[in-house]
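Whiteboard transcription, Tuesday session. T.W. wrote the structure tokens on the left side:
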């Protein structure tokens, strides 16, 4: 798959402002920015900012790989005694970085010794007071999130970086073995209580509709792309640990008792960025051949299916999957056989690159199967 040198930024931004990146860059430059690679640090160790700037641009990468049927995310270990890890990230240096993506690649290389291939911009996060340093009077961070894909051969811990299962941060998202236990045991009852706490009937109706659509309750279908919607609902209801640390939403002993069961928190906005990356990748698999950015050069069809299932959080019908892959012309046989399947030898395939010129949207559109829930 041909990689573009740069990617068109997503036009959705938190503040609803067109051209927010240019405005922020101009703001920082006008304020006399003194940060950058040499003057500042990565976001785990402090922000590079000027003493007068009211805003700082942070570049954060959700770097994804698939290994042993597990979707992996690369994290930077938190320095002691900080309890949370974070995504590879750092401050944008308007003087030293030619582009935002160049700045991101520089920080990732410096922090993880990983040279990124496929990268695309996700979203701009600008909510106030999601960083403790801003609440203490520091500059307001605006985070530009990116999705990056690497192959399993790149999986190795390096220095302060480590690979982990992304479902550790979103345990309600993995439906491969049926509905996750945390949904019925913790999430659904707590969200029902949150709905009932609304002060007016219209507010209760709106909350109920949001919960049903996001979590597939009340007869609604589960949409595996709504990862960010689900996380934001849990945040608003006080059911994730970031709610308590941000101190923006009132929590109760009941909601705080649920927080240890709703996934491992990350620093600042980083779990929101990861949720956005998960939803984007789950959607994009269906209409672009990005899955092959994560596969070895040769693979069996079973390995391809398992990789898609790991990312999508559900199972695919084996025969339907193989028929679709053949019909779409996504792969071609190599003429070789794999003897490392643990069973019968299996034919090896490779990505057929001509498909990107033959079809407008070559992807894997087989529906992901999840259990129907009454809610």
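and on the right, the sequence the group agreed on:
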């Amino acid at each position: 798959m041909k990689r573009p040198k740069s990617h068109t930024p997503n036009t959705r931004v938190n503040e609803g402002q067109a051209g927010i990146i240019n405005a922020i860059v101009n703001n920082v430059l006008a304020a006399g920015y003194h940060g950058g690679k040499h003057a500042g640090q990565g976001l785990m160790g402090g922000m590079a900012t000027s003493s007068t700037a009211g805003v700082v641009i942070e570049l954060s990468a959700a770097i994804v790989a698939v290994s042993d049927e597990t979707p992996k995310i690369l994290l930077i270990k938190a320095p002691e005694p900080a309890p949370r890890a974070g995504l590879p990230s750092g401050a944008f240096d308007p003087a030293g970085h030619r582009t935002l993506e160049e700045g991101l690649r520089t920080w990732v290389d410096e922090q993880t010794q990983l040279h990124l291939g496929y990268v695309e911009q996700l979203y701009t996060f600008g909510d106030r007071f999601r960083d403790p340093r801003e609440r203490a009077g520091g500059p307001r961070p605006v985070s530009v999130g990116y999705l990056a894909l690497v192959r399993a051969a790149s999986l190795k811990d390096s220095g302060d970086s480590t690979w982990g299962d992304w479902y550790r941060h979103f345990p309600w998202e993995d439906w491969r073995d049926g509905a996750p236990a945390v949904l019925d045991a913790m999430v659904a009852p707590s969200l029902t209580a949150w709905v009932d706490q609304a002060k007016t009937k219209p507010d209760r109706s709106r909350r109920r509709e949001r919960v049903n659509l996001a979590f597939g309750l009340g007869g609604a279908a589960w949409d595996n792309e709504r990862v960010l919607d689900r996380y934001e609902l849990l945040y608003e209801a006080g059911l994730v640990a970031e709610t308590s640390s941000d101190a923006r939403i009132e929590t109760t002993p009941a909601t705080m008792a649920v927080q240890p069961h709703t996934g491992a928190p990350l620093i600042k906005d980083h779990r929101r960025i990861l949720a956005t990356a998960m939803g984007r990748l789950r959607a994009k698999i269906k209409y672009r051949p990005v899955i092959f950015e994560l596969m070895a050069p040769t693979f069996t069809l079973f390995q391809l299916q398992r990789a898609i299932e790991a990312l999508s959080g559900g199972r695919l019908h084996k025969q339907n999957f193989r028929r679709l892959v053949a019909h779409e012309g996504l792969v071609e046989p190599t003429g070789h056989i794999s003897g490392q399947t643990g069973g019968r030898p299996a034919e090896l395939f490779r990505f057929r690159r001509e498909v990107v010129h033959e079809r407008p949207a070559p992807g894997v559109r087989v529906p992901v199967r999840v259990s129907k829930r009454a809610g």
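Someone added at the bottom: The beta strands are 55-67, 70-76, 89-91, 118-125, 140-149, 161-165, 331-338, 346-351.
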